[in-house]
Amino acid sequence: MKLGLYSDGLGQLPLADCLDFCRQRALQCIELGTGNWSEAPHIALASLLASTSRRDELLGSIAARGLTISALNCSGNPLHPGAVGEQHRKIIADSIVLAARLGVGRIVTMSGCPGGPGDSHANWIVTSWPPETRDILAWQWREQVIPYWIELAAMARDHGVRLCLEMHGTQCV
Fold first, then answer.
1. In whole angstroms, what separates CA 145 from the centre of its chain?
2. For every one of its 173 residues, what pLDDT tens digit does the chain have, with 9 covering 90 and above?
3. Which residue of 74, 97, 98, 116 has the fewest C-beta atoms within 10 A of its own C-beta?
C-alpha cells in the first residue's frame, strides 16, 4: 500500500511546498485536483494539456521529491442540468486526456446526479413514493446516468485511464 495526500488539503500552499510537505512525511504519492469542486490550487489543466514542457516540468518536480501522481481528481456533478453539468463534463474529459498524457492511470470523480425532465437543479430521488418519483428515477437512469457513463467509460478505456468514484450523498452512486 502507498500513502499519499490529496493536494487540495494543502491548497493554501504553493505546489513546491505541498510536494515538500509530502516528502518530509515520507508519503509516496499525491492526488492533484484539476477542477470542478476543486479549485485546482496546484495545476492549471488547460496549460498542462497544451504544453509538453509544462507536463514534463510538473512530473520532474514530483519525481525530484520521490513522489508519483496517484490520480487526478475532478470531482463534481457531470449530470447537473445545464451549463454547470456541461462544464463539469468538460473538466472530467480533459482530466482523462491529461491523465493519459502524464502517464497517470486513474481519475477520481463523482457519479453525478441529474435533475428530472426539465429541471434546472439536480434532484436526488431517495424514495419510490409518491408514484411520480419512480418515473423521474427511471428517466434519470435511462436518459442521463447510463448513457453518460457508458460514453465516459469508453473514453477512459480508450485513454488507458481508470475511473474512480467518490461516493457521497446527492450522487447516484
1. 16
2. 999 999 999 999 999 999 999 999 999 999 999 999 999 999 999 999 999 999 999 999 999 999 999 999 999 999 999 999 999 999 999 999 999 999 999 999 999 999 999 999 999 988 888 999 999 999 999 999 999 999 999 999 999 999 999 998 889 98
3. 97
Residue from 38, 55, 43 nearest 109 by CA: 38
Give residue limits of the domains in the chain: 4-166
* Exposed / middle / buried, residue 32 (Cβ in 10 Å: 0-12, 13-18, 19+): buried
Q: Does the domain formed by 4-166 have CATH 3.20.20.150?
A: yes
Q: What's the predicted TM-score (pTM) here? A: 0.96
Q: Are 72 and 98 in contact (CB under 8 A)?
A: yes
